[in-house]
């Protein structure tokens, strides 16, 4: 019941603000970025309010938020200009720490910032481009998760990657792909005027790719949690875990959708 209530409330807030768009949705994306970064730092047992934590949050926000809108004089590449500035500041500080903070130590905070920032940047770009594409990504991921769970539970026998996620099966993974394709085709059938102008065969191939990429994103986060010895990335969503637990697949799916030209 707790899981259902949390899912309904959180889903309603997210979808409602996505439909409203503009500044309210940008604020939500900014908050999600900050929380996701804090979850990664907590897993790594690094204080988020440390100097590298604060700089990494600014780096992630510089990628996630529409910085060109806020700093037009920086040009179209303002995202990476600000990200690079944060990185160079941290590299400069490294010089004065007398070996206590090394070049290798920069890897975790700024790789985390890139991972989280690029994911949420593309989520925001999808919402600004087309609500249909945003909802398509959400329903592909949700259908993949549901299909993989129910089909895997029913007929799953062959373990997918047991060292990373012991409960996932090959049968479940394939069931998730089929479920995502069915849901996506139904969405295009019901809303043909809002759907991207692609033929049904290409749509099926793309949805299959997005479903696989979403599952990879989920496995990446499972691998991170296993590495750091935690069950969930956080506990902000009762019954669901943390923000990364809910957005791990989408963080991977949105950039690939952008790469393949859907927005």
Q: Strand sequence of the main sheet, in spatial order?
A: 1-2
Q: pLDDT average, as an integer?
A: 92
Number of strands: 2
Uncertain segments: none
* SSE string, helices as H and strands as E: HHHHHHHEEHHH
Question: Helical amount among residues, as a percent range?
Answer: over 70%
Output the number of helix runs. Answer: 10
How much of the sequence is in beta strands? under 5%
- Secondary structure category: mainly alpha
Report how far the terminal alpha carbons are from each other.
37 Å
**Number of domain modules:** 2
Report on the biggest sheet.
2 strands, antiparallel
- The shape is globular
EC number: 2.7.7.41
Enzyme class: transferase
GO molecular function: phosphatidate cytidylyltransferase activity
Keywords: Cell membrane, Lipid biosynthesis, Lipid metabolism, Membrane, Nucleotidyltransferase, Phospholipid biosynthesis, Phospholipid metabolism, Transferase, Transmembrane, Transmembrane helix
């Amino acid at each position: 019941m707790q899981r259902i209530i949390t899912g309904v409330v959180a889903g309603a807030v997210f979808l409602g603000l996505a439909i409203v768009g503009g500044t309210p949705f940008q604020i939500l994306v900014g908050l999600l970025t900050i929380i996701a970064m804090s979850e990664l730092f907590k897993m790594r047992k690094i204080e988020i309010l440390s100097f590298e934590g604060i700089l990494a949050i600014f780096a992630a926000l510089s990628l996630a938020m529409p910085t060109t809108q806020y700093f037009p004089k920086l040009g179209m590449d303002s995202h990476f200009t600000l990200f690079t500035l944060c990185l160079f500041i941290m590299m400069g500080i490294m010089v004065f720490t007398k070996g206590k903070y090394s070049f290798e130590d920069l890897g975790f905070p700024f790789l985390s910032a890139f991972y989280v920032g690029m994911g949420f940047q593309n989520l925001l770009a999808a919402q600004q481009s087309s609500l249909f594409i945003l909802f398509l990504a959400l329903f592909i991921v949700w259908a993949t998760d549901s299909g993989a769970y129910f089909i895997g539970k029913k007929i799953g026998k062959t373990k997918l990657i047991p060292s990373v996620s012991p409960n996932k099966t090959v049968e479940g993974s394939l069931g998730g792909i089929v479920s995502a394709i069915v849901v996506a085709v139904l969405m295009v059938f019901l809303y043909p005027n809002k759907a991207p102008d692609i033929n049904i065969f290409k749509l099926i191939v793309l949805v299959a790719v997005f479903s696989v990429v979403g599952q990879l994103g989920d496995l990446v986060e499972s691998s991170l949690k296993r590495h750091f010895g935690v069950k969930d990335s956080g506990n902000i969503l009762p019954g669901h875990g943390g923000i990364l637990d809910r957005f791990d697949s989408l963080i991977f799916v949105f950039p690939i959708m952008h790469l393949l030209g859907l927005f």
